Structures are given as structure tokens and as C-alpha cells.
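Example 9 (inverse folding). The structure is encoded as follows.
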């Protein structure tokens, strides 16, 4: 069966609150979880940015769910440090943790003061970081002098088996490239079948029979107008092309970029409805993609109500 996961958004909620939500999600019938890894939120109204790696240890210990996290090694995180963090979690919680890697966004990575390169250079840097991490998980003494530098690094606390390295892709081009080397894929819902195009590109270029996860941004509330307002309030700053979002640095810049976004414009990236049957239909459509995991992110602040409602009516209908 496809895993139905709860997405924990560190840019929207304090980590203590998120810890409570993942426990409630497990009790409600969610069978997996994942989280973001942000240094800054997308907007001032979101207002949080807890450290994902501290939180993950607590979340794995307090639940029995498998977890994933989306990370961009090579800038604010050296790949050897991410390799060590992943190895520690996998040693403590074998079989329950995967790490997704992407080329990153300036909003999180610019803080170290490094030059923020173009996409092709970020991709090349990402692949170097993945090679370094895999070598460290294999117990090798790693020396590397490239876009990132590693001077005689070796892990002594090793994972029982190497974790899945999940490629995080938003475009057909990135998914095509990741199909060659990633162990799995994660992407997000996009309009007009673009999400399926991304998945097909991954599968057609080396990713066939590899796990695929789809993160779905949605907004549910008992009141239809409130569901739309929740999406607008919390998620309008992401309603831009990913090529634009990757280069903005501060929350007020995202807010300026979204100045002319209207509530009625939010459907492109967020599934908005007060009707739980409609959400079931959308999820059933996504399940035709032959997914390993469907990771649901209610972008509003009404997380308790969302968890209870989806546990009672959506997850049961999908099982």
C-alpha cells in the first residue's frame, strides 16, 4: 500500500507544536511523515524556522512512523556533517529514515556568505556532495578537492545499511538527471499534469522501479472561503516559478514577489476545498501515479482539525 504521510512544516510552526502534530497524525492513521529544513520562513506570517535535525530525533523517538527530510548539502551544511547526522538517525531508527537532496534555495543557503551559483553549478555541487556522503556511509576515508572540500573524513558510527538518497526535483530536466543516480524521487503537485511529467522523466531515465514520493500542498477547512484564505495567507509567497523562488533571499522579498497574487490564483499550486470527498478524489488521482508515498501538507494553520478530518474520512477512504 502507498504510504499516506503528514508533512511537518518547520517554517510555519514551532518544533514543539510540530512534535505534537506528528504524534496526532500517527494516531489518526497517517503512515509516514516528512519535514522541511528551513533557515528562514517563506513569509513573516509563517514566522518559524526550527532546526529540523534536532526535531527529527525527537519525532522518530516519539512515533513509529518512517520519516524523510528535504535537504540541500554543500552550502550551510557540509556534506560530511549531513552524512554524520543521517548515519546517526539511521543507526538509532533503522529502516525508518530517508534523506531527500536538492540544489537548494538562496533563502536558506545564502547565510554563510558563499556565492550563490546558477542552477547547473548547483546541480554539479549537489552530485559531488552525494558522492561524498555515500562514500562516508560506506566507511571510507574521504579526501575530496572539488566544489566542496573534504580532508580525511571518516564516519565511525555507520548506518546498518545506506539510507535512500531521494532526489528532490521540480522540473522534467532535473528529474531526468536525477534518474541516473538518485535512489528515489520526491516532487510536488503541479497543475496540468506537470507533476506526472516529472515522475515519468525520472522513471524513463534510470528511475524505473525506484520509490517515488509526491508531496501535495492542500488547504482544507470546514468553510470553503476560509480554506482559500488559509492558502492565500500562508502559501501565496510560493506561488511563483521555482526559478524565481530559488534566488530570493529574505521573507520580505518573497512577499514583494507575491504582491499581485490574489486568493483566486492559489489553485495552481494548492488543492483547495472544504469537501473531503473532493480531497479523496484528488488523492485517488495521484495514486494512479504508482507512488511509494503521498505526503500531504495542509498549508493552513488548522492542523489539528486537518489531521482529525483526514484521518476519519480521507485516509480510510484511500485504504
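The amino acid assigned to each position is listed next.
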Amino acid at each position: 500500500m502507498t504510504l499516506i504521510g503528514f508533512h511537518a512544516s518547520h517554517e510555519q510552526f514551532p518544533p514543539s507544536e510540530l512534535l505534537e502534530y506528528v504524534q496526532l497524525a500517527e494516531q489518526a492513521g497517517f503512515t509516514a511523515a516528512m519535514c522541511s529544513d528551513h533557515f528562514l520562513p517563506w513569509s513573516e506570517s509563517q514566522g518559524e524556522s526550527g532546526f529540523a535535525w534536532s526535531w527529527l530525533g525527537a519525532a522518530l523517538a516519539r512515533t513509529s512512523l518512517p520519516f524523510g527530510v528535504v535537504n540541500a548539502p554543500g552550502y550551510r551544511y557540509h556534506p560530511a556533517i549531513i552524512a554524520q547526522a543521517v548515519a546517526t538517525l539511521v543507526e538509532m531508527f533503522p529502516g525508518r529514515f530517508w534523506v531527500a537532496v536538492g540544489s537548494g534555495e538562496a533563502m536558506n543557503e545564502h547565510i554563510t556568505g558563499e556565492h550563490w551559483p546558477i542552477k547547473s553549478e548547483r546541480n554539479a555541487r549537489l552530485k559531488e556532495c552525494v558522492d561524498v556522503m555515500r562514500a562516508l556511509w560506506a566507511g571510507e576515508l574521504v579526501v575530496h578537492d572539488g566544489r566542496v572540500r573534504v580532508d580525511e573524513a571518516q564516519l565511525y558510527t555507520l548506518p546498518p545499511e545506506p539510507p535512500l538518497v531521494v532526489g528532490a526535483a521540480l522540473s522534467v530536466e532535473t528529474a531526468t538527471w536525477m534518474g541516473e543516480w538518485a535512489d528515489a524521487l520526491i516532487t510536488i503537485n503541479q497543475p496540468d499534469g506537470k507533476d506526472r511529467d516529472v515522475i515519468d522523466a525520472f522513471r524513463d531515465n534510470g528511475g524505473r522501479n525506484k520509490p517515488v514520493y509526491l508531496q501535495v500542498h492542500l488547504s482544507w477547512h470546514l468553510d470553503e472561503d476560509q480554506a482559500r484564505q488559509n492558502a492565500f495567507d500562508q502559501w501565496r509567497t510560493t506561488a511563483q516559478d521555482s526559478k524565481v523562488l530559488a534566488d530570493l533571499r529574505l521573507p520580505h522579498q518573497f512577499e514583494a514577489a507575491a504582491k499581485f497574487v490574489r486568493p483566486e490564483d492559489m489553485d495552481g499550486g494548492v488543492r483547495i476545498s472544504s469537501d473531503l470527498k473532493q480531497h479523496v478524489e484528488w488523492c485517488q488521482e495521484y495514486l494512479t501515479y504508482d507512488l511509494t508515498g503521498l505526503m500531504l501538507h495542509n498549508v493552513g494553520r488548522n492542523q489539528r482539525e486537518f489531521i482529525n478530518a483526514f484521518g476519519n474520512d480521507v485516509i480510510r477512504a484511500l485504504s
